[in-house]
Each structure stands twice: as structure tokens, then as C-alpha cells.
Write a structure and sequence with these properties.
7 helices; paralog of FGE (formylglycine-generating enzyme); 3 domains; five-stranded antiparallel β-sheet; four-stranded antiparallel β-sheet; about 10% helix; single chain; Immunoglobulin-like; 26 strands; mainly beta
């Protein structure tokens, strides 16, 4: 029997992704472009075009900007709207629309284009358009993806989709898209879809009915278990972390002398939804497989990367993972939030209260300057309670949050996006001060050096 508690809690992590999408200004420039919209289509009408799309999943995505040559002022559409009705157009004139995404710091994507020609309605036209052809589909987790071929009618404008069970809801898909992802479905429920074609005069075909499709949840590992993915030929393993509540920070550590130890002050309760985290730090081979150069060791961790490069890497890996069908559409790869990192480092709900990640003896779990002062292969020391390696020592690891002091208030799925720097965690081979390797130590930093890498998270 598939355990559903972990996957179900992943689906309720909205608060986490929302809190990571703050519009607060950052003092460190973010130059990473947001991902593009997907499933862009247009419905032609009389002197109008209605554009529809799916927003990207980037945590810092803010809005969409639509431009076209005949209009000098771009149209701004807020995150979540995913549609724009553009009126006052000239029938018979071809319009090419460029849809760009914008993040909270103002970075704009290259853009996706689509071309459409508005058509005047003919009141004397009573002939419905031809039906679609080649209808097929694929069931996924709480969703079904439908594909088809549009008819060749010159006045064909869109496809309407209804489904049972589902009531009277209608999904409109513009000419040329020929794909629709129907989301929000109930797993283990059989759905039948009816697709009708519509022309510029509003004539509607009788419709084509699909075969039944039954969405199902994927078989993901239970808490503490692992799942190995292979992306562009490079394997990497994620460890499941069951959600829970823990004490974040350490007043005891903060009271001791040492560089930036005071950052741990203000212990507070944090509650996290379930997620997955990398068994190891991101390796050179995985980084290169995603960033385009290829090659490199799958044993040595990547280093000398900035926090923003880490976020960009995770975003690109996430896009590839979705395109290759490695993960469902409603969960995403990112680097961990600081809270996710600390909870995993402490062993999650299996924690034994160790000082370091997996032991009270640093040499058992972490590489320090006493081991030669250089980077080491991953998985050479002992893992922690969840089977995660190198969260104390080897290379420091960037987390998603901006650097800021803790407050004492309890939090749920926190992610701070306002501050004067970033945060690296876990200590590194460069140092020998034991306090730097504890699971609560946090170092505020603004650039990078050869001792800093990162780790993946999936939620």
C-alpha cells in the first residue's frame, strides 16, 4: 500500500511557497531570469484576442507583461490571473503577442510569443466547425493532460472542454494550443472529457468524448526513505523528511564567543510540512548536467557558487525534471529554506539531539581543516538519523532565505526574503572551530568562495 501522508502534506505547502515570494527589496542583486509561462494559447474573437497561460512556479515570480507591435504600452497581469482579454483590435490583422514573466526584483524573461488574427462574426454563418481529431490523454497526480489536433476550418477559434464528474465548469483552449492540463481533480476517480470546437460566429460542434482517465498519486517514498532520480544521465538521491515541529536556533550557542554565533539567538518553534532533501550536497556532475557544460565528478560537491546561482540551478533542474516527467507538476525542486535545512540536519522527527548532524563527535560526520583543508568526496563520513550526509562539514551550503535575525514567535513553513545578505550553513573543510559545524550555526554572507556549495530540496 502506498503511504499517502507524506505526499498529501507536500500538497498543503502553499504557505511555504507564498512566504518565499515576498516583494521586499533585497540589498543583493538578483539577476536570475524567471521561468517562462507555459501552455500559452489565444482565443480569437470579433476585434479581440483572449490569451491564456500557466504561470511559472518560481518562488519569486510576480507578474506577466504582454506586448505587441501595434501597442506601445505593455499590459501588466498579476500572478495567478493567467488570462488577458485584449480588445479594440482590427479584424483580419495578424497580431503577435510576447508574454514575459517578471520577478519581484524586476528581472524579465526573454518571453514566449504567439500569433493570432481576430475574425469578425458572420451572423449568417450557422455551420459548426469540424471536430478535433487524434484525442489522447495521460492521467497524473490530481490531473489529466489532453492532446489533440485542431480542425483546419479558417474560422475555428477555440476548443471547449467539459468533464464528468465536474459539473458545468468549462475550460477554454485557444486555437493552436492542442494541449490542456486539467488540474484539481480527485485521485482514484474516473473522469470522461468532452471537447467541442467553436468558430468565430459562436457555432459549436457536437463534440468528441474521451476514453476514461483516472488520476492517481505517484509512489513516493515514506519518511526517511529515499528515491533516486536520473537527470541527463546523472543520478542523485532525495531523502523524504516527514513534517513536524522543532526548536530552531540555540540560545546556548548564541551566548558563546565566536564569529557570528549570536545569529542563533531567539530560539523559536517552527512547524514544517513534509518535503524531500538531497542525500548529499549537489555534485559537480549534477551541476554541469543542468547548467549545460556536462561532465565532472559525481563524487565531489560543487563549490565557488553564489546563492543566486544556486537558485538558478535549482530552477533549471526543476524545469528539466518536469519536462522529463520525473516529478508531478505540483511539486518543485528548489534549494532548501533555512528551516528545512536545520530540521533535516537535526534528523527531523528521528532526531537524537546530537550537536552535529548525526553525532556528538564531529570527526564521525564532518570534514574540517584537520582533514587536509580541502574538499572531499560526498558520503565518506557517517550519515545522520535520516541517512543524509555532510550536513556538518565538507562545504558550506546556501539556503534560500535572506539573512536576518530570528524572532521568538512560532512560525509555520517560514522563508525570509528580506535582509542584507544570504545564509550559509553547515561549516566547511576550511575551518576547525567546532561551533561552526553545529546544526544551528548560521553564517551571514554576501558573495561566495571556494568553500560554499548547495543542496537540493523538493516540495
Amino acid at each position: 500500500m502506498i503511504s499517502t501522508f507524506l505526499f498529501a502534506t507536500i500538497l498543503s505547502v502553499t504557505a511555504l511557497t507564498t512566504s518565499c515570494s515576498s516583494s521586499d527589496d533585497n540589498d543583493i542583486a538578483d539577476t536570475t531570469l524567471p521561468a517562462e509561462v507555459t501552455f500559452l494559447s489565444g482565443v480569437t474573437g470579433d476585434s479581440r484576442i483572449t490569451l491564456n497561460w500557466t504561470d511559472p512556479t518560481d518562488n519569486d515570480f510576480d507578474s506577466v507583461e504582454i506586448s505587441y507591435p501595434q501597442e506601445s504600452t505593455p499590459i501588466r497581469i498579476d500572478k495567478g490571473v493567467q488570462t488577458a482579454d485584449i480588445t479594440g483590435l482590427t479584424n483580419g490583422t495578424a497580431y503577435t503577442f510576447t508574454v514575459r514573466t517578471i520577478d519581484v526584483t524586476g528581472n524579465r524573461s526573454t518571453g514566449v510569443t504567439t500569433s493570432h488574427t481576430p475574425i469578425a462574426a458572420d451572423p449568417n454563418d450557422k455551420t459548426p466547425p469540424a471536430e478535433i481529431s487524434g484525442l489522447s490523454g495521460t492521467a497524473g497526480n490530481r490531473q489529466v493532460t489532453l492532446r489533440w489536433t485542431d480542425p483546419a476550418d479558417t474560422d475555428f477559434t477555440k476548443v471547449t472542454i467539459t468533464y464528468t464528474p465536474g459539473g458545468t465548469a468549462v475550460v477554454n483552449v485557444g486555437k493552436g494550443a492542442q494541449t490542456a492540463v486539467i488540474t484539481g481533480l480527485i485521485n482514484d476517480t474516473e473522469y470522461v472529457f468532452t471537447l467541442k470546437t467553436v468558430d468565430a460566429s459562436g457555432n459549436e460542434s457536437n463534440g468528441i468524448t474521451s476514453e476514461p482517465f483516472t488520476p492517481t498519486a505517484p509512489d513516493f517514498p515514506q519518511s526517511g526513505e529515499s528515491k533516486t532520480f536520473t537527470l541527463n544521465g546523472v543520478p542523485f538521491t532525495m531523502i523524504a523528511v516527514e513534517g513536524g515541529t522543532f526548536t530552531m536556533g540555540s540560545n546556548t550557542e548564541a551566548a558563546q564567543s565566536g564569529e557570528q554565533r549570536a545569529n542563533q539567538t531567539n530560539e523559536h518553534q517552527v512547524t514544517l510540512s513534509s518535503y524531500w532533501i538531497g542525500e548529499t550536497e549537489v555534485t559537480i556532475a549534477l551541476w554541469n548536467a543542468v547548467m549545460g557544460s556536462g561532465g565532472g565528478s559525481n563524487q565531489l560537491p560543487i563549490a565557488s557558487i553564489t546563492r543566486n546561482q544556486s537558485v538558478d540551478f535549482a530552477s533549471k533542474l526543476n524545469k528539466i525534471a518536469h519536462e522529463q516527467g520525473l516529478i508531478p507538476d505540483n511539486i518543485n525542486f528548489q534549494i532548501p529554506t533555512e528551516a528545512q535545512w536545520e530540521f533535516a540536519a537535526k534528523g527531523g522527527n528521528k532526531s537524537k539531539g546530537y550537536t552535529y548532524s548525526g553525532s556528538n563527535t564531529l570527526s564521525q560526520v564532518g570534514w574540517t581543516s584537520s582533514d587536509g583543508g580541502s574538499v572531499h568526496a560526498v558520503k565518506q563520513k557517517s550519515p545522520n538519523e535520516l541517512g543524509i550526509y555532510d550536513m556538518s562539514g565538507n562545504v558550506y551550503e546556501w539556503v534560500y532565505d535572506m539573512a536576518a535575525a530570528y524572532t521568538k514567535e512560532s512560525k509555520t513553513n517560514p522563508c525570509n526574503t528580506s535582509g542584507n545578505g544570504y545564509i550559509k550553513r553547515g561549516g566547511s573543510f576550511y575551518y576547525n572551530d567546532a561551533y561552526r559545524f553545529t546544526s544551528t550555526y548560521r553564517y551571514f554572507y554576501t558573495s561566495t568562495d571556494y568553500t560554499i556549495g548547495t543542496r537540493l530540496c523538493l516540495y
